Amino acid sequence: MLKISEVYEKKYKTVNQRPDGSEYVTHLTRYATRESLVNRSYIVAVHPHEFTSPLTEEKVCESFPDQTKFCTLVVDGNSFRKSEILVVGSFEKFCELLRD
């Protein structure tokens, strides 16, 4: 098993107040991580990941330190919710971990 830090969009509910005293709710999304275990034999490919959308790039800058590296793990899609998992870590790190 391989321990990874999966990146996902987490929704936050915020209650704001108008000048007249009434309240309204807004929802913000930010990137967060959660620890996961993946069976090494299910990993099909690993790709370095770079964000191309300016909006996504802004969310990443708010959520992670500068120079944080990301990879996309492609897993056998029949057993998972989705076949591509965005994870924290450099491509070189995953090459070392999966070298076996």
Sheet/helix structural class: alpha+beta
- Give the beta-strand count: 5
Describe the strand arrangement of the main beta sheet, using strand numbers: 3-4-5
What distance lies between the first and last C-alpha atoms, to the nearest angstrom?
Answer: 13 Å
Total domains: 1
State the helix count: 2
Using only C-alpha atoms, the radius of gyration works out to 17 Å
Which stretches are low in confidence, meaning pLDDT under 50 for 5 or more residues running? none
The amount of beta strand, in percent, is over 45%
> What's the order of the H and E elements?
EEEHEEH
State the major sheet. Answer: 3 strands, antiparallel
Helix content: 10-25%
Q: What is the averaged pLDDT score?
A: 87
Give the overall shape.
elongated
Please give a handful of descriptors for the protein shown:
elongated; three-stranded antiparallel β-sheet; single chain; two-stranded antiparallel sheet; 100 residues; 2 helices; alpha+beta
